[in-house]
Write a structure and sequence with these properties.
Strand content: 15-25%
Helix content: 40-55%
Largest sheet: 3 strands, parallel
Low-confidence stretches: none
Structural class: alpha/beta
Strand order of the largest sheet: 2-1-3
Mean pLDDT: 88
Number of strands: 3
Distance between the termini: 27 Å
Radius of gyration: 13 Å
Order of helices and strands: EHEHEH
Amino acid sequence: MPIRVLLIDDDTRLVEMLGGYLRGHGYVVDCCGDGESGLQAQRRDGYDAVILDVMLPGIDGLEVCRRPARLFPRSPS
């Protein structure tokens, strides 16, 4: 099963370049241009990995990282 990657960045040139590179190496890549749509995609689809910019319009990349951790805290081992 291929690895699913969510790429969140508002720089369309970078998204095209990095997305194309990852797809060329067998990854399934979805892209979002802002933090809010990235969070929605994470909730809706789930991903094996997320690559994101820190300086995003609206919700910044750090908050995109924080929110899933609050929504899905790790259970104790």
